[in-house]
Amino acid sequence: MSEGRRPTEADQPPASAGEYDERLLLAERTDAEINQAVLQPMIQTGRGFWALVAGLGGLVAWGLFAWGYLVYWGIGVTGKNRPVYWTLFITTFVFWIGISHAGTMISAVLRLLKADWRRPITRGAEAMTAFALLMAALYPLIHLGRVWKFYWMIPYPNNRFMWPNFQSPLMWDLVAISTYLIGSSLYLYLALIPDLAMARDHTGSWRNRLYRGLALGWRGTEAEWHKLHRALGIFSVAIIPIFLSVHSIVSWDFAVTIQPRWHSTIFAPYFVVGAIYSGLAALATILVIVRRAMRLQEFLRAEHFDALAKLVMIAGLFWTYFWFSGFLVEWYGNEPVTRELIQEEVSGRLAPLFYLQMAANLIPIGLLVSRKVRTTPRLLLTATLLVNVGMYTERLLIVVGTLQRNDLPFNWGTYRPTWVEVSIVVMTFAGFALLYTLFSRIVPYVPVWEIKEGRLRYTLRRIGRLLVPTAAEIE
Amino acid sequence: MTDSKSLIALFDESTKTAEAVDALHAFGIPEDKLTVMTGVPYPEQAIGRHRTWLRLPYIVLAGAVGGFFVGLFLAVITPHLYRLDVGGHPPAGFPPAAIIVFVFTMMATIVSTFLGVLWEMDFPRFGPAPYHKQVTDGQLAVLLEFPVGLEAEVRQLLETHQAHDVAEPERMTL
Predict the structure, then answer these.
(1) ipTM score assigned to the predicted complex
(2) Which of A3, A175, A187 sits opposite B100 (nearest CB)?
(3) Which of A5, A419, A424, B174 has its CA 20 to 30 A from that of B3?
(4) Of the candidates B13, B56, B133, which has its C-beta nearest A3's C-beta?
């Protein structure tokens, strides 16, 4: 099928003649070639892939051992103390929740806005959301220590007459994160069904059996497409308020306490904006790596990195605005404990972390102004990695930094993580990378049907001396 | 249509497919005996089919209302059954209840959308079904059922509109 991706009128030369021939949706490829270009790197796994899986699996196994050690000996093997009750675990929990926000942003928001550049990157973003949430969901369990008591949070009548306290932000966390995890997983799966059918039609052995099961009998009839489109539209609308609510609720874990520097009305939007900033940056990082590892240069092009990096830059500017708004009010208020905390950050023991946070969050915004940085994968990787170093440090300062000082000076303290905490944190990073690596080899990483749909919409139109890419309104 | 026959025909592009569908309608093949399969979501009515009415929005609405009441029950009723007074707050305050009700409403909306669309599509459907694997390679497949006596005319009509590989459909286990 060649229609829709290049002009059919006599006065419209082919895409390759113009300056827009780098655009994916105008590229010269048949549908069968696109299928093969996506399936080949997925099916062919070299020694490097298995070495990576083994390495990541080893880190996960070590982390599980550390978790087992914690469960056996108790929470005392961590660096938790009075007053620093929330430590690396909650810091990393907040970080992963933040990372999960890019998937919805890219997939749902850009789908509703009909931004065509989203097409090749939506699946990678949605998978990132689901796996980041899985990692985040581990932390409340780890943080509990007595993980086997988790079921006490589930509301069911019992002979202990115990009932979850729905007034507690920790309970809001449970329901909000569960909802987001269910929603993002179903959203990911629903959009995958046509591509699973494509993979079913082009693979054999265990893969064919797997895809047959997951494709649920998809044939691509008009009625099926119509219903799928309708469902994805509803999902896109419904998941946006959920994604906003999740990080707001995480922020309220902090803001509803009377801890200085946490008790702030700006915390919810500040957290949401920070989550979008770190999530988009993490997505750009992952796309650069996956593009190289899976040889997806044809699908993940400069145009996509350029657009994504612009979003990262805008999110960074918003983050700066919210950070400054909060900081200004706290600094101006000059409340004694807050003043002490600000001094600790700006010129005290926490100063290295504070300046790392500011540099790592602000420098990338300046770098991303340059089109060269936005479109050169190596430079973009550096800038976006820096953002996530900055955002992790920010969470560390919010959680651990703030808890070291409070309204009772005799109750001040410090915190140093133990090998158990560090191992568990490393486990979730390795676990995320492992799940993502396996995912990219089991399901089509590039949403093939979305790209083909985009090609239906796109054509070149002559305006004066220019050939301009034009998207048809077909929905 | 007791003595009926099925055919599947492949087309390279959508305009010819739409013309063939129109011609088949004009020839007397009813709407419910025609299925068009594509690897790409064509816009509604692009291939000449009628708009289908969906129950999905109502299923979603019912799910959302159900979730709202479950949330309301958990956030407002159960705290009175298992009373726990914390921080001078009433057992069920508006702000926490609003959060719980909102989240449960959204959870039910999402789950009912998913289950609703599977139900609407009659999924999962793993048995043998008429299909052609070239659909996912960009071909448009028209599957039709008609009285046996009309086969010659139908074949000619399809070939006039540049259909190829006109044959009896293979029933594949999907």
Answers:
(1) 0.94
(2) A175
(3) B174
(4) B13
